[in-house]
Design goal:
By secondary structure, this protein is of the alpha+beta class. It is built from four helices and four strands, in the order H-H-H-H-E-E-E-E. The protein has a four-stranded antiparallel β-sheet, with helices on one face.
Length: 137
């Protein structure tokens, strides 16, 4: 009986450990960045969202880049507040599809707001081996 219990426990433990990695998404994949960006919006973490964007240095000083990021945070916060007046806050979201072509990617997400359901395409680009939200630059 004791051997049976130990064997059953070992099987359950192995199944649990094998399942830990299943379904996990690479954080540096287009899907991972897209999901993280929607999670930031859901949590109203606008700075976290902007940190997922690529800002080329082009000889700019660190202060200039931080000023640009601060401006983006402010703009994003204002746009989000306007949008929530009609559609409400994000309740849930779900990955739909991903299309990658060279250094560009589009991730389609289904988003359930308080007042409506919608799908959105999130554009991303790969710079120096890392995926970023495309700021349209």
């Amino acid at each position: 009986m004791r051997k049976l219990l130990i064997s059953a426990f070992a099987i359950v433990a192995a199944c649990i450990m094998a399942g830990c990695g299943a379904g996990s998404v690479d954080e540096n994949s287009p899907r991972g960045i897209a999901e993280k960006s929607v999670e930031c919006l859901k949590n109203k973490d606008f700075k976290g969202y902007v940190d997922l964007m690529y800002f080329p240095t082009d000889g700019k000083k660190a202060e200039e880049i931080e000023q640009t990021k601060t401006m983006y945070v402010s703009m994003l916060q204002n746009k989000y507040q306007e949008a929530t007046k009609t559609q409400g806050n994000i309740k849930t979201y779900e990955f739909v599809s991903e299309e990658v072509k060279d250094t560009m990617a589009t991730v389609k997400m289904a988003i359930a707001y308080e007042n409506k359901n919608d799908t959105t395409d999130i554009k991303l680009k790969n710079k120096e081996g890392k995926w970023y939200l495309d700021a349209g630059k």
